[in-house]
Write a structure and sequence with these properties.
Blueprint: H1 11-25, E1 31-32, E2 37-39, E3 42-44, E4 48-49, E5 58-61, H2 81-90, E6 96-100, E7 104-109, E8 120-123, H3 124-129, H4 133-143, H5 159-195, H6 200-208, H7 213-235, H8 245-254, H9 257-264, H10 276-286, H11 322-333, E9 334-337, E10 340-343, H12 351-361, E11 368-369, E12 376-377
Parallel strand pairs: 5-6
Antiparallel strand pairs: 1-4, 2-3, 4-5, 6-7, 7-8, 9-10, 11-12
């Protein structure tokens, strides 16, 4: 590789010396496609097929010096390798394809979601250098020829499609459970705030008519959505814009929602009368308000009203017992499957899925009971 000119993408070396032998060991009989295919007036120069035959799964191989999402400076081909294969899948009857530069390997599926890249990727260079045999085993099982369709005719019967459909069904079940969990969390939080001895001002607002059930419910929804937003952002490492390990440690150990999720997973929580978790959570929220206090920790600024200092105006001056807050977070963080508690993987949830959960709750009509003996939300 070092002998090649700097502007050489190393396509031939990558294909002949590395990718082709590896594909053969995975059960492929890769055949070079010399002529670009024309579909609906557009040309698609897909380099190979999994084996001889036009209806066999596409396998596109580029040089190791070119990123899969990088469009060549020359403009030929017209799209990056990833975009080229994705567009080809979307305009043909092929369902699955492989695209690789030898270092990174991606499985692509026919998809109309072109607003962002969606794929399964393995960084084979990192896996081999780190001697991560477990991940290589997973790579082998997913990329083996037996997992892809035999041809276009049986694409919906291959193992990859079975895995895909199963994951969609599981995602739907998780989404439904999350919706139920959010509903339960709303009731727990609403009742917990109203019943706490230090929330007298909140109860007085209801009795005086200055706070309505709908306004209270909207603030509870905003609180829930703050928690969901932070759990998603933390799961995807989107909040911290710094590489300073000390700042990262401080946020994760003292301010993150992940810290609270770890507490939630403890088996038992007793009602001890403390409400320090809520006060700590308020400090976390303040890191993201319009004053951007989180800048000192390298946190990314968040515009909008979600973390505005006036968004939870009636809740900020109240209190909620640690026990109630933990129970509510437990509803958001865990779900039961086959008699086992599992973590909600917020990193894998789409924004649309979270939005559908939130929108379904907007139609609810809260009922608030405030009295001398018992207060609550139903």
């Amino acid at each position: 590789m070092s002998r090649l000119p700097e502007d050489d993408p190393a396509t031939t070396v990558t294909r002949e010396q590395w990718v082709m032998p590896l594909l053969r060991s995975l059960g492929y009989e890769p055949i070079y496609t010399a002529k670009a295919e024309v579909v609906e007036g557009q040309t698609y120069a897909i380099s190979h097929r999994a084996e001889p035959g036009e209806n066999k799964p596409p396998v596109h191989i580029i040089g190791s010096r070119v990123r899969l999402e990088q469009r060549p400076p020359s403009g030929i081909p017209r799209l990056s390798a990833h975009a080229l294969v994705q567009e080809y899948l979307n305009h043909t009857e092929h369902l699955w394809a492989v695209v690789t530069n030898g270092l990174r390997w991606r499985l692509l599926r026919d998809s109309s979601l072109m607003t962002r890249l969606t794929y399964v990727e393995f960084d084979l260079e990192q896996i081999l250098n780190g001697e991560n045999f477990a991940e290589f085993g997973l790579f082998y099982r997913l990329f083996h020829r037996s997992r892809l369709p035999e041809s276009m005719d049986d694409a919906d019967e291959c193992l990859l499609e079975f895995y895909h459909q199963e994951s969609l069904q599981q995602g739907g079940r998780v989404r439904d459970r999350l919706r139920d969990g959010v509903e339960s969390a709303l009731k727990i939080l609403g009742t917990g705030f109203l019943q706490h001895p230090q929330s007298q001002s909140l109860r007085e607002k209801f009795e005086a008519g200055t706070l309505t059930e709908v306004a209270y419910y909207r603030q509870l929804l905003m609180l829930i959505y703050r928690l969901l937003f932070l759990m998603v952002a933390e799961s995807r490492n989107l909040l911290l814009s710094t590489d300073d390990p000390e700042k990262i440690r401080i946020y994760r150990e003292y301010y993150s929602i992940e810290r609270l999720r770890a507490l939630v997973e403890r088996q038992t929580w007793r009602r001890e009368g403390f409400q320090d978790l809520w006060q700590g959570l308020r400090v976390t929220f303040q890191l993201f308000d319009e004053n951007w206090r989180g800048q000192v920790l390298g946190l990314s600024p968040l515009d909008g009203d979600l973390f505005g200092s006036d968004t939870l105006r009636d809740l900020d001056g109240c209190a909620i017992d640690n026990h109630d807050l933990i129970l509510a977070l437990r509803q958001l963080s865990l779900y039961e499957q086959k008699s086992q508690l599992r973590r909600v993987n917020y990193g894998a949830l789409d924004v649309e899925e979270l939005g559908s959960v939130y929108e379904s709750l907007l139609e609810f009509h809260p009922q608030v009971k405030v009295g001398s003996r018992e207060s609550g939300v139903g």
